[in-house]
Amino acid sequence: MSDLGIDTRPNALTLAGVALALLLGTLAIGAGAAMSPTLTAFGLIAAAVLAISIARPEFVVFFTAAALYMNLGATLAEEHNIGFFTELLLMLVGGVLVLRYLTRREFGAEARLSFLVLLAYGVTLVITILHARDPLIAQEELIDTIEIMVVAFLVVAMITNAERFLALANGLLFGGIVLSGIAVAQYLTGSYYSDWGGFAEATVHHIAGETSSWRASGPLSDSNHFGQILLIVLPIAISRAIIGPGLIWRVIGIVALGLVVWAILLTFSRGTLAAALIALAAYFWYLRRLALFAVIPVLLAAWFVPQVMPPEYTDRVMVSVRDVTAVVTGDGYVVDPAANGRLAEMIAAWKLFLEHPVAGVGYGQFESYYQDTAQRYGLMARESDRQAHSLYLEILSERGLIGGFAVLGLILFAFARGGVALRALGAEGRTVEATMLRGVIFGFVGYLAASALLHDSYKNYFWITAAALMAAPVMVARFAGSGAFGSDGAQVYNK
Questions:
Q1: What span, in angstroms and rounded, lies between the C-alpha atoms of 258 and 241?
Q2: b/e string for 146-171 if b means 16 or more Cβ within 10 A?
Q3: Where are the domains of the chain?
Q4: What count of Cα atoms within 13 Å lies in the side-chain half-sphere of residue 91?
Q5: Taking each helix axis from N to C terminus, what angle separates 135-158 and 111-127, rounded to the nearest 10 degrees?
Q6: CA-CA distance, 195 to 192, in Å (whole number)?
Q7: What is the pLDDT of residue 85?
Q8: What is the value of pTM for the model shown?
Q9: What residues contact residue 313 under an 8 Å CB cut-off, 6+ apart?
């Protein structure tokens, strides 16, 4: 028996699963030898992941979180012609979940409630595609969303105790360390003409005045979105630096914090900087009773940021300050062409919402409406169809009030479940779990704050973070035993 009260002795089904993993590895060697070395390596890694996941289910949670955070599916498809990773991930998580239920009767206590919420949200998506002008695009968007929602549900069902929740948080932290570390290494070595296997995209963009520079994009195609996903990890790294436990975890947290902050600066994203300030202000306000612990990271950041901040970043921020002042006061005009374009796209989204307030113009349809809307309202003309550049305005324009209330309800549900767990963990004096959960909560805050200026291009980040918060109450004894399968969950929570 383990410390979690789980019978860890091998049984026939577990041994059969390990045997299956070895068989898949053997087949991968044979198939890969006939096709490509890359496929051989991928098959062997997949077999190893399967074997470890069967024996240690918290690993599948860690791996899923890290893979989604690193955008592994898209990167493997685009850079290495392996286009079936997401399907394999679904099979891995689903297979391990079924195996654990059949052998141990394990099933996340929050899964039933989360399923009902996700089902209701999915119904609203279906409603908003029925009148879409381009049904094919709407259906593709719907399929992509449902696919990642299924992964999110399976993750919620897999998290049955505090150990697995921490595995998810650590998976996000690991992904953040890898991506930000690669971005920093790329900057220090000047190797911008290599994309580091697809995990370090970078392009030259106008920064301010006559200055242009490389902007890091990580595994994504846009540096602003890369900055946004780094915000998820930023409070988690701070939580590790504060709580540990132990020296090694604190060092990992401090290193992660430094790398993530540095990588954010290398994106030159002004929206990310603003969202980071919002998330960190909220985080440290929550920690105001632990004044010493709150001050130390602030002092470290105050020293570290000027050391690594590219000199062009200050100029870029000052241009934004002047443009925002001009918009708010009405005195002057916006000088940054990028800001002008985004403002036009946001106004167009708002106008479309006013024209179609109930169900919007249809899921995934804003781009095809932009040019016509911009022309009708005298907005900035663009060379191509554009996205709304604001998640919330995009939702309102494409899905109307139906979609707006659905997303709001989903976000509030995730925060509510996280809040319930946080209060209960605090009452039980479990500071490690509470501090790490707090990091995930404020990471979600940072992501949502940045979404005010970014459209919905990479859905996996929203859903994996929301899934973590939905599952959080299973860390508490009185919630873990009240799941969909009676009291079985009481055998798998952390005491």
A1: 11
A2: ebbbbbbbbbbbbbbbbbbbbbbbbb
A3: 106-495
A4: 9
A5: 180
A6: 7
A7: 82
A8: 0.85
A9: 207, 265, 268
Sort 143 into a burial class: Cβ within 10 Å, 0-12 / 13-18 / 19+. exposed
Write out the DSSP string of 68-79.
HHTTHHHHHHHH
345, 386 contact by CB (below 8 A) = yes
Decide: helix, strand or coil at residue 478.
helix
pLDDT interval class at 483 (50, 70, 90): very low
| Nearest CA-CA partner of 231 in 443, 441, 68 | 443
In eight-state DSSP terms, residue 283 is: H
Q: Pinpoint the alpha helices (H) of 287-430.
A: 291-308, 311-329, 337-355, 366-376, 391-428
Query: Is 70 exceeded by the pLDDT of residue 299?
Result: no
Phi, then psi, of 212 in degrees rounded to 5:
-125, 155
- 72-80 and 85-104 helices cross at what angle (nearest 10)? 140
Tell me the β-bridge partners of 478: none
- Angle in degrees, 0-180, between the axes of helices 162-189 and 57-69, rounded to the nearest 10: 40
Residue position matching structure tokens 């191509």? 384
Residue matched to tokens 């498809």: 77
The rounded distance, in Å, linking the Cα atoms of 454 and 270 is 12
Neighbours of 339 (CB within 10 A): 18
Scan for tokens 């992964």, then name that residue: 151
pLDDT (mean) for 51-64: 82
